[in-house]
Specification:
This protein is 60% helix and 14% strand. The chain is an alpha+beta fold.
């Protein structure tokens, strides 16, 4: 797997690569991936955890205590718990969402899957995710892992990023295109 140019080019990418290599060496990729999914879901639903990871007013020691308590409450694996501690001590918790995204991509590549980043105005149900996996898998000839997130600002429809390709079928884009066409 080639990670030196693309993923490692950013700070979050270097952290994600280091975590992935550690998880791979310890044969803990799935455990770490599961823990990171739990953290991502908690970041999306907990304003307190988001504040800990983004506020410059919270010092590193307090951030470390907060992420340690969160890790214990979520019953995260030891590798992820230690990694969160490193991010907190280094003042890099702000990078956590991007680290999670990039780790997921590395883990998918390792499993021979391709990750599709999917943005929708509302959460997709299981049937929609399964149909999307099937359609995208047929398109690229590989197993697809869906990294879904919700962004109400797209108004409706869906935006899919698959590698360097982007399929934008959002209502926001269609309205912007229509507005541009009406201007002349």
């Amino acid at each position: 797997m080639e990670t030196s140019g693309g993923i490692r080019a950013s700070l979050a990418g270097r952290y994600a690569s280091a975590l992935f290599e550690l998880a791979r060496d310890e044969r803990q990729i799935e455990a770490v991936a599961s823990s990171l999914r739990a953290i991502r879901e908690t970041l999306e639903t907990s304003p307190d955890l988001r504040a800990v990871t983004t506020s410059p007013l919270i010092d590193r020691a307090e951030a470390h205590k907060a992420v340690a308590a969160t890790a214990a409450a979520l019953k995260l694996d030891g590798t992820t718990t230690n990694f969160l501690g490193v991010l907190a001590r280094n003042g890099r918790l702000r990078q956590l969402p991007e680290v999670i995204r990039l780790f997921s991509r590395l883990a998918s590549d390792h499993r021979g899957e391709t990750t599709a980043e999917v943005v929708s105005a509302r959460p997709l149900d299981d049937d929609q995710v399964a149909a999307l996996k099937q359609q995208l898998g047929a398109r690229v000839g590989r197993d697809i892992n869906i990294d879904a997130r919700v962004d109400p600002s797209i108004l409706g429809g869906i935006v899919v990023r698959l590698g360097s390709q982007m399929i934008d079928a959002s209502i926001r884009t269609k309205l912007n295109t229509l507005a541009t066409a009406m201007k002349g």
